[in-house]
Amino acid sequence: MSKLSSLILLAAASIAVAGCKTLPPPMPLSQLDPQQAHGHDLFQSRCAACHYDRKDGSLHGPSMLGVFKKPSLPSGAAATDERVTATIMHGRGLMPALGNTLDQQDADGILAYLHTL
Ligand code: HEC
């Protein structure tokens, strides 16, 4: 095989690996630690009206499935704790800011739960 075609194959393989279908599944709910479970509860009450967590597809906002397993957020920003915390606290576009109704412990819990998806 030529060097060029192996390079193309390699590129195609990396794209396939980054694609949603090959992401590892979310951690089963029964295996969440207390902080992650607290985050799951908060997600149900504060986020689930607008975001799916354990399946693909948009509700009012994009699904959070694999949010930290993908290289970037739906907006294209890097999928970092800082960026996601800022989105939760200050809002973004049509997403309302939730900072005045969540304390640091709540925000940390939600983040911990998002990391299990
Ligand atoms: C009232 C509906 C609503 C609620 C409640 C809501 N969101 Fe969102 N969220 C949105 C919408 C709409 C977007 C798309 C915003 C945009 O990119 O303009 C979004 C985007 C996001 C993004 C992607 C940001 C990016 O840079 O692409 C994350 C992460 C997120 N929300 C997390 C959360 C979490 C966690 C909660 C709960 C604490 C939450 N959202 C609650 C509507 C909501």
From TrEMBL:
SUPFAM superfamilies: Cytochrome c. PROSITE patterns: CYTC, PROKAR_LIPOPROTEIN. Residues 34-117 form the Cytochrome c domain. GO terms for molecular function: electron transfer activity; heme binding; metal ion binding. Residues 1-18 form the signal peptide. It comes from the Bacteria. Keywords: Electron transport, Heme, Iron, Metal-binding, Signal, Transport. Pfam families: Cytochrome_CBB3. The keyword Heme applies. PANTHER family: CYTOCHROME C-553-LIKE. This is Mono/diheme cytochrome c family protein. It comes from Granulicella aggregans.
